[in-house]
């Protein structure tokens, strides 16, 4: 088994270093914007994955919540923010139950 080269490891950036370099330090407006967008993406991915797991099309989901397929597509691509009411409608249409702990 090969041993790790400690000198090489010292030169590596941590994930926090990368975030700081690209989006600024925690609390900065740029970093806050990134973190909010990352959360939007995360929840859209959860909904998309569940929709696909159920073998439901975007059109079927859109019909269930009274929206257009293009809107569902835009949410899943991260091209638009969804309102909390839309998130809850989509969650319910997919049979998901949410709780805040």
Cα radius of gyration in angstroms: 19 Å
How would you describe the shape? Answer: elongated
Number of helices: 6
Instruction: Report on the biggest sheet.
Output: none
Note the quaternary state here: single chain
Roughly what percent helix?
55-70%
Unreliably modeled segments: none
Q: What string gives the helices and strands in order?
A: HHHHHH
**Overall tally of domains:** 1
Give the DSSP E fraction (strand runs of 2 or more residues): under 5%
Structural class: mainly alpha
How many beta-strand elements? 0
Name the CATH homologous superfamily. lambda repressor-like DNA-binding domains
CATH-derived topology: 434 Repressor (Amino-terminal Domain)
CATH A-level architecture: Orthogonal Bundle
Straight-line N-to-C gap? 45 Å
What's the level 1 CATH class? Mainly Alpha
Mean pLDDT: 93
Key traits:
434 Repressor (Amino-terminal Domain), 101 residues, mainly alpha
Which helices and strands occur, and which strands form pairs?
Layout lengths: L5 H5 L4 H9 L5 H25 L4 H8 L3 H9 L6 H10 L8
Helix pairs in contact: 4-5, 4-6
What does this structure look like?
With 101 residues, this protein is an all-alpha fold. The chain has one domain (16-93): 434 Repressor (Amino-terminal Domain), CATH 1.10.260.40. The chain has helices spanning 6-10, 15-23, 29-53, 58-65, 69-77, 84-93.
């Amino acid at each position: 088994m090969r041993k790790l080269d400690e000198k090489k490891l010292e030169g590596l950036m941590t994930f926090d270093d990368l975030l700081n370099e690209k989006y600024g330090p925690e609390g900065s407006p740029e970093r806050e914007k990134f973190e909010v967008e990352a959360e939007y993406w995360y929840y859209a991915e959860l909904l998309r994955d569940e929709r696909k797991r159920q073998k439901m099309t975007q059109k079927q989901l859109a019909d269930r919540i009274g929206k257009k397929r293009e809107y569902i597509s835009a949410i899943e691509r991260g091209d638009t923010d969804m309102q909390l009411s839309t998130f809850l409608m989509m969650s319910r249409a997919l049979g998901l139950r949410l709780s805040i702990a």
